[in-house]
Amino acid sequence: MVTRKTLCLKRLGGDRAGELRAGRFFANPRVTVAKIVESWGARTGPASAGRHVLAIQDRSEVVFSTTPRRRRGLGKVGKGNAFGVLVHAMIAVDAATGACLGLVGGDVWTRDAEPAGDVYARPLEERESIHWSRTAEQAKTILSPAAQVTVVADREADIYAQWASVPETGFDLLIRAMSDRRLADGGMLSAAIAGFAVASATEIEVPAHQPGQPSRRARLELRFGEVEVCRPRDPRRRHLRPTVRLRVIDVREVAPPACVEPLHWRLLTTHEIDDAAAAWRIVGWYRARWTIEQLFRVMKSRGLGLEDSLVGSANRLVKLAAAAVKAACVDIQLVQERDGEHRSDCATVFSASEAATLEALNATLQGNTQRQRNPHPKLSLAWAAWVVARLGGWNCYYKPPGPITMRRGMEQFHAIHRGRVLQLTLQRDVGIL
User: Fold this and answer.
1) Is residue 42 within 8 Å of 48, Cβ to Cβ?
2) Torsions phi, psi of 117, nearest 5?
3) Closest CA to 33 of 379, 261, 319, 300
4) Tens digits of residue pLDDT in 233-277
5) Got the DSSP string for 178-212?
């Protein structure tokens, strides 16, 4: 998928026989979503060693074209008459550099039927919201080599059970507040924030929402403080701690232009906040949440085109979506590391045998001038991306290689690596004979 930039089984296979092989793979009952998702974080754990990792999680709806006669076994997603699968994913990002380290965990599924009755009346363990806590718990194992982990999520993850049970030493949460909360002193969260003094102010450039529109400057004020939130008044939550102490960061736009919705972030975290600089640093960590939005864009219409797949059954579509998440993540890592800024290791994307092929190719692709030499440390991801870009036609001059060049390079690399493996296999077999 990474090399061909497609999820179409016909194009993945290359010919009729290849298309049938790809179809049989996803139809095989021994190939399961659980096994594919389990493989997501195989190389992410080692890549996280010694780092402060932002474990960013989010959910995306993948809508497939259906008709009343051809639902393909898919359940409803979102609002209206839309059918598809749901992808819940967590991606690891270096807090200091913003480098994408790979996937961590999550789940992919399709609903068997529409939930009956009030969703919130059911136990949390029977609701889809449980994925937020379960994925965070997965991160504790996969990211155990990391020096520190901060789980970052949007408002859907603001669940009291998660605040009460997930955090531990070296494992924190940073989540945008969903709604107002009761506090231990009898007040409400919104009233407490209103009483915080302005600690700092700054101006930022806000990009345009639509092409052709100008960007604008926005002045932001920052407030922060500490609160103690109460457990919900729900008898099923009595096993949880009665209160949880959290820090709040409130960032809001001052005097926005007319007819413009003002910027406003209300963030909850288990991190200590000593001053305004620490608060702004945490705001910066939350802004890194955009990385997972990019992941879903690459997976769908802006990249691999998952929503255009014509695979005929929900069982195979769910597995295809799980594989597509991994392919999209690799794509982001390659383009992101083309200049070597993040100093990621080659092993985060390529296997040991693939790295050996890259090393053999590197010597043949370097030119006589300094600009035509691979400037990156050997076996770094930037070093590998340089080789791939050269295979894709980049001449080391003009602008940096983009996704199309990387795609062409990966196609070339895939073919060369396959031939090299075949050659080594034949040499070994001849030696045995």
Assistant:
1) no
2) 75, -165
3) 319
4) 887 778 889 999 999 999 999 988 888 888 999 999 999 999 999
5) -S--BBTTS-BHHHHHHTSPP-EEEEEEE--SSTT
Tokens coding 388: 């791939």
Burial 363-391 (b: 16+ CB within 10 A, else e): eebeeeeeeeebebeeebbbbbbbbbbbb
CB neighbours of residue 195 within 10 Å: 9
How are beta strands 148-153 and 52-64 bridged, if at all?
parallel
- Could you tell me if 92 and 53 are in contact, meaning their C-beta atoms sit under 8 angstroms apart? yes
Rounded CA separation 41/33 (Å): 14
pTM for the full model? Answer: 0.83
Which pLDDT band holds residue 156 (cuts at 50, 70, 90)?
Answer: very high
Domain 346-432, classified CATH 1.10.740, yes or no: yes
Domain boundaries, the chain: 9-154+289-336, 346-432
The 10s digit of each residue's pLDDT in 74-96 is: 888 877 788 889 999 999 999 99
Average pLDDT for the chain: 87
